Amino acid sequence: MRWFTAFIALFSLNVSVAFNASANTLTLSSQPDTLRQNILSSWQECDENTWCEDELGYYRESYFAQAIVGESALEIELLSEFSAHQLSQLQLNLRSDGFSLQSVEVMEQRFDISQQSSQRSMSEVDEALVRFINRYPQTAPRKLVWYSPLWDAELISDGEIISLRFMSGDYTE
User: Fold this and answer.
1) Chain centroid to CA 137
2) Which of 137, 145, 7 is nearest to 80 (CA)?
3) How much is the pLDDT for 72?
4) Closest to 107 in 3D by CA, of 165, 160, 154, 158
5) What pLDDT digit, counting tens, does each position of 116-166 carry?
6) Count of other CB atoms within 10 angstroms of residue 97
7) Does domain 2-99+148-169 have CATH number 3.30.200?
8) Is 25 left (phi over 0), alpha (psi -120 to 50) or beta?
9) Where in the sequence of the chain do the CATH 3.30.200 domains occur?
10) Alpha carbon of residue 52 to chain centroid
11) Residue 75 and residue 36: Cα distance in Å, rounded?
C-alpha cells in the first residue's frame, strides 16, 4: 500500500529536476537526531509517525520524501521516476556522502563485496562488480545496499520507480 501511495503521489507531483533553493534539502552529514528534529518541525505529518515532503532536494535533484520517525530510529525514503541518469547520480551522491557499497542484487543474482574481497584484491573485486552489473540492462530490478558510519542505505529500482532509503538507529520494518 505504501508503494502504491508513493507511486500515485509521484505522478500527481510536478517534480522539478533543477535544484530549488527554497525547497528543503537533505544533508546526511547532520546527526540523525538533528535531522529528526528538522523533519518534525518542517515536514508535513501524513500518518502516525510518518512525515512527508513533496519536494526534497538531495544534491541537484528533487524527490518526494517520506520519513518514519521513531524514538530510537529514523528512516527517510526518497522516491522518483526511473531514469538511468538518476540511478547513476544517486550512486555518485552516496559515494560523495561517504557510503560504501556492500552488496548488489540484480534480477535475484547477488554480488557480496565483503565476501568477494576476502578472496580477491579490491581492484579484482571492482572489476568483477562492474562486469556483474553490466550483464543486466539498467531497467532490470536491482537493490544496492550501502553503509556509512551514521546510516545504512538501500537503493532499489524496478525500472519504473527509484527508491533510496536511509536508515539510522534500530529501525526494523
Assistant:
1) 20
2) 7
3) 84
4) 158
5) 999 999 999 999 999 999 999 999 999 999 999 989 999 999 999 999 999
6) 19
7) yes
8) beta
9) 2-99+148-169
10) 15
11) 9
Average pLDDT of the chain is 84
pLDDT tens-digit profile of 67-118? 999 888 999 999 999 999 999 999 999 999 999 999 999 999 999 998 999 9
pTM: 0.81
- Unique residue bearing C-alpha cell 536508515: 167
Q: How large is the C-alpha radius of gyration of the chain?
A: 16
Contact 26, 42 (CB under 8 A): no
Cell (9 digits) for 38:
528538522
Q: Which residue has the cell 537533505?
A: 26
User: Is the distance from CB of 60 to CB of 157 less than 8 angstroms?
Assistant: no
Containing H/E element for 53? strand 50-58
The strand pair at 142-147 and 109-112 is best described as unpaired
Spatial distance between the Cα atoms of 145 and 91, rounded to a whole number of angstroms:
11
